[in-house]
Amino acid sequence: MANINAKGVIIKQTDYGEGHRMLSIFTEEFGIIKAVSYGVKKSKSKAAASSQFLCYGDFDFYKSVNRDILTVNNIDVVDGFYPVSEDIEKLALCNYLSDITYELLGTANPDERILHLFLNAVYALSYKNESLEKVKTVYEWKLMSVGGYAPNMMCCTECQNSSVIAFDTARGGMVCNSCMGKDSVKISRGVYRAISYIVSCDDKKMLSFRADDELLKTLNEISEKYIYSQTDRKFASLDYFKAISQM
Question: Are 219 and 177 in contact (CB under 8 A)?
Fold first, then answer.
């Protein structure tokens, strides 16, 4: 038996039994871990507000010898990112960002950089005047790059030709005219520069570029295909976000 302290953010929540909530918490020290917040759904629970999706803070856990799932003793909230919870479209997007983060990282794999990327994206949605489309595609590109799927933007992924014209989502990078295939998408110089900037820039500056609606649309289409091609998984949360965005 042991008490554990960690700083983290709740990236998933589900009902657990009567009055309880199962939380997936992305922590700095331990990666994504699971913990139960007992009695949190009861009307008099003081922990209800702090056991919500996207609450970021200092967590006190209790770990028993025979269980991998922890128990939440206390949460000191640093930021609840409440502007997101008050906007259904932003909330839907954050659910999708959480899903792809969980998919790439899995549980118990500490990655402080990805945690901070996630927090930067949620912070931008909460407190900055950034479009949802921009935050979404930038996070997708950045997550893939940091998570081990950095695209090759320097030359053709097949023949190393420096004259590249298309991005191939299956092969993970640029291709030349001769090597184009069914998963290749021709891109403009502006799209090429945007992708190159996002994957290589300082994490804190990942949103520090200008892009019109057409450029963002193309970036989003390619990043979605890239994630699907590399993970071989479709995300219901993405479909929901798109449905909400079109209402």
Answer: no
Identity of residue 236: A
178-216 residue pLDDT tens: 999 999 999 999 999 999 999 999 999 999 999 999 999
User: 64 pLDDT exceeds 90?
Assistant: no
C-alpha span between 42 and 237 (Å, rounded): 28
Global pTM reads 0.95
Residue 45 confidence (pLDDT): 65
Return the HEC string of the chain: CEEEEEEEEEEEEEEECCCEEEEEEEECCCEEEEEEECCCCCCCCCCCHHHCCCCEEEEEEEECCCCCCEEEEEEEEEECCHHHHCCHHHHHHHHHHHHHHHHHHCCCCCCHHHHHHHHHHHHHHHHCCCCHHHHHHHHHHHHHHHHHHCCECCCCCCCCCCCCCEEECCCCEEECCCCCCCCEEECCHHHHHHHHHHHHCCHHHCCCCCCCHHHHHHHHHHHHHHHHHHHCCCCHHHHHHHHHHCC
What are the structure tokens assigned to 41, written together?
């759904």
